[in-house]
Amino acid sequence: MSETLAAPVTVSRSLWADARIRLFRNKAAVASLFVLIFMGLLAIFGPMFSPHQYERVYTEYVRVPASLSAYPKPDQIAPAVERIAARIRAQIEKQEIIGGSVRVTLVSPRAIDERNLAFFGRSDLFQGSNVIERADEGRKLVIDAPIRWRTFLFGTDGNGRDLFTRTLIAGRVSLAIGLLATGVALLIGVIYGATAGYLGGRIDTVMMRIVDILYALPFIFFVIMLVVFFGRNFILMFLAVGAIEWLDMARIVRGQTLSIKRQEYVQAAEALGVTSGGILKRHIIPNTLGPVVVYMTLLVPKVILLESFLSFLGLGVQEPMTSWGVLIADGARNIQNAEWLLFFPALFLVSTLFALNFLGDGLRDALDPKDR
Amino acid sequence: MCCGVGHWRTAMLSYILRRLVSALPTLFVVVTLSFFLIRLAPGGPFDLEQPLEAKVMENLNRIYKLDRPLIEQYWLYLSHLATGDFGPSFYARDFTVAELLSRGLPVSITIGGLALLLALAIGIVLGTIAAFRQNHAADYSVMVFATFGITIPTFVVAPVLQIVFGLMLAWLPVGGWNNGHVRNLILPVVALALPQIAVVARMIRASMIEALRSNHIRTLRSQGLPRSTIALHALRGAMLPVVSYMGPAAAALLTGSVVIETIFGLPGVGRYFVEGALNRDYTLVMGTVVMVAVFVLVFNLIVDILYALLDPRVRYDT
Fold first, then answer.
1. Which residues, other chains included, contact A361 with Cβ-Cβ below 8 Å and sequence gap of 6+?
2. Among A86, A166, A268, B259, which residue's beta carbon has the most beta carbons within 10 A?
C-alpha cells in the first residue's frame, strides 16, 4: 500500500481559544480593547511625561481654555508686565516683544530697587529678567525678560492647574477604584456563590436567603453612610463598593455551579475522593469564569460611575487628588464659562465606559455557547 | 392538579400575605443595621463649629434621650416606629421626620413616576424596533444611543439640558418646582429617564430577539399576521427581564434622585438621606432608610405578581 490518504486534520480548540477567535473577529470589541489599553497606559505613564505636576497651581493661568499653541498668548503679556511694574513701583515707558522675550523700559521718579525685579522670575509668564541698560542713576532700566512657554492641551481649572495632567491622574484613580472594587466583588461573589451552589441543600438555602435580604437593603445608602461616617478613605471606598456589588456575582456563580456539579468530571473527582475544597478550586470555579468575566467588564463601568456619583456629592476622592467624577462634577458647575472643564474629563470617562461596555458585549457573544 | 381561577386567586392571596410577613424580618435587619451604623459614627447632631456649653449640650441630649444607653434608645426607636412614629428631626428643628417625608414624597413620586412611564414607553418602542431590524441602521443607532445613555452620568446630562433648553433656547425653566408646573417637570423627568430608557431598550432588544425565534412566534408569522400583532405577542415574553429589573429601579426612581433634585433645585426626598447623614440627623436618616426599604420590598412583591400574570408557567402554590 503505497497510497495513504491524508487524514482529515481536525484541530480541536478549547472553549477559551474558540472564544478568543470569535472575540477578535468582533471589530467593536477589538477597538474597545485597544482603547482600554491606550487609556491604561496613558493613565499609568502619562503623568510622568507631562511637563506639569497635577497639583501645581499657576495663579496667572486660571481657567485658560484648551489650546494646542503655547501660553502666554500675546494679549496676556502686556497686562502681566503692567502688574509686575506696579509691584516694582515703576512706570512702563516702552515694551515690545522681541523673539522669545519681552523688552521693557521702566522709569520711576526714584531709583528702582533691582531686587524687585525678582517679580519677573516669580511670575508664571517669565523665566527671569536681565538688566540690559541702566540710565538716569538707576531711575530708568531696560530689562529683557525671556518668556516661559507653557502648553495647556486641555486648558486649566479654576485654580490654575493643568487639566491634561489632572485628567490623566484622575484616570489612574478612577480605573484603580473600578478594578479594585471589581476585584473585591469578584473574590467574595465567586467564593460565596460557588460554595452555596456546590454544597447545596440547607446551606445553599440559608446562604441565598442572606443574599436576598441583602438585596432588599438600600445599598447605595450604606455606601454613602460608610463614606460619610468613616472618613473619605480611598481604600475604604472601594472596599465598600466592592462589598455591595458581589451579590449579582454570587447569584451568577451559584447558578453556574448548580449545573456544573452534575457533570461527569465532577462526579469522577468525587469518586476519586477529592475534597470539596479541591473540587471547588480545580473544577467548579475555573468553569464558571466565562459569565464572570463578562459580568466583570460590565461591573467596572458601574463602579466608576458610582465613584463619580459619590464625588458629585462631594463624598469621593479629596483634593488635590482627583478622579474623573470629581473633575466632571467640577466641570458641570463651570459649564457656562469654561466648557472644556466638563468636555475633556467627560470624553475620557465616556470613551472608557463605552469601550468597557462594547468589550463586555463582545465577550458575552464570544462565550455564549448558543451562538456557536 | 386542576387549576381553576378561584384556586389561583386564593393561592395568589396567600402568597402575597406570606411575602408581606416575610418582608418584616428584612425590614427589621435594615433598621437595626442602619441604627447602629449611624450611632457608631463619630460626631453627633448638635456638633457645631463652636461647641455648645456643656450644660446646654446635656439638656439637649436629655430632651432627645441621647443620654440613655444605646440599647434603650434602640428599643425606644423600634417601639415608636412600630406605631408609625418616625420621631422629630434633629436638624430641621420644629419638623418631624414624617412631616419632612410627606412634603417631599409627592415631588419625588411625580418626577420619578413620570420618568418611569417615559422610560418604559420609549424604551419598549426603541427596543422592539431594534429587535425587528436587527443588524440594520435602526438597530445600530438605537444601540449607540443606549450605550450613550448608560455611560453618560446624569450629572453631565442634566446641566447640558439646562444650558441648551433653559438658557440658549430659553424654552423651559432651568429649575425649581413651581408647584409641579408641567414646564418645570420636563427637564428633570427627561434627565432622570434617559439612562432608564437606555437600559430598557437594551433589555427589550435582547429578549425580543430571543422571543422572535421561539416556536409560538414562528407560528404566528407563518399565519401571516401583521407585524404589530406579532410584536405584541413577543413582547409578553420579552417583558419578563424588564419587569424584574424595573422593581428595584422603580423604587429608586420614586424615592427621589439626589443628583436630579440638587441640580434642578427640587424639594424632594432624594436629598434628605445625604443631608441627614452629613448633619448626623439620626431620625431623618433612619426615616429615609425605612421609606426606601419599604418601597424596595413593595416593588419586589409587585414584580413577582406581575411575573405570574405575564408568565403562565410561574406558580406560587408552594
1. A28, A29
2. A166
Q: What is the pLDDT along chain B (318 residues), one digit of tens a residue?
A: 455 556 777 877 888 888 888 788 888 888 888 888 888 777 777 777 677 778 888 888 787 777 788 888 899 888 888 888 888 888 777 888 888 899 999 999 999 999 999 999 999 999 999 988 888 888 889 988 988 888 888 888 888 888 889 888 888 888 888 887 888 899 999 999 999 999 999 889 888 888 888 888 888 888 888 888 888 888 888 888 888 788 888 988 998 888 899 889 889 898 888 888 888 888 888 898 888 888 888 888 888 888 777 776 665 554
Residue in A218, A225, A349 nearest the CB of B292: A218
Would you say residue B1 lies in a domain? no
- Element counts in chain B: helices (H) and strands (E): 12, 0
CB A196 within 8 A of CB A208: yes
Residue B292 within any structural domain of the chain: yes
Q: Tell me whether residue B6 is in a domain.
A: no
| Interchain CB distance below 8 Å, A221 and B150 | no
Out of A221, A312, A342, closest to residue B259 by CB: A312
CB B280 within 8 A of CB B38: yes
B23 vs B17: CA distance, rounded Å:
10
Q: Which domain holds residue B317?
A: 11-318
| DSSP 3-state of A3 | coil
The CATH code of the domain that includes B233 is 1.10.3720.10
Query: Which amino acid belongs to residue B61?
Result: N
Nearest to A217 among B23, B30, B153 (CB): B30
* ipTM for the whole complex: 0.75
Cis bond leading into B159, ω under 30°?
A: no
- Give the span between the Cα atoms of A121 and A87, in whole angstroms: 13
Whole-number Å distance between alpha carbons of A248 and A215? 9
- Distance, in Å, from the CA atom of A278 to the CA atom of A274, rounded to the nearest integer, reads 6
Contacts of B163 in chain A (CB under 8 A): 335-336
CA distances from A48 to A29, A52, A70, A159, A267 (A): 29, 9, 20, 21, 54
Measured CA angle at B93 (ends B284, B276), to 5 deg: 25
Q: What's the total number of domains in chain B?
A: 1
- Secondary structure class of A52 (helix, strand, coil): coil
Closest CB to B163: pick one of A217, A336, A354: A336
Q: Which three cell numbers stand for residue B200?
A: 430598557
CB-based burial of residue A54 (10 Å sphere; 0-12 exposed, 13-18 middle, 19+ buried)? buried
| Count of other CB atoms within 10 angstroms of residue A48 | 7
Indicate the burial class of A349 (C-beta count within 10 angstroms; 0-12, 13-18, 19 or more): buried
Selected residue of B147, B148, B151, B300 to mutate for chain A interface (largest A Cβ count, 10 A): B151
Shortest CB distance from A335 goes to which of B153, B163, B252?
B163
CB contacts of B23 in chain A (<8 Å) are: 216
What HEC string does A135-196 produce? EHHHCEEEEEEEECCECCCCCECCCCCEHHHHHHHHHHHHHHHHHHHHHHHHHHHHHHHHHH
**A217/chain B closest Cα distance in angstroms:** 6
Query: Does B37 contact A358 at a Cβ distance shorter than 8 Å?
Result: no
Q: Do B30 and A313 touch (CB under 8 A)?
A: no
Q: Considering only CA atoms, which of A197, A324, A201, A200 is closest in space to residue A249?
A: A197
**Shortest CA gap B214–chain A (Å):** 14
Largest separation between any pair of C-alpha atoms in chain B: 85
> B4 lies in a domain?
no
CB distance B151–A301 less than 8 Å?
Answer: yes
| Residue A353 to residue B151: CA distance in whole angstroms | 6
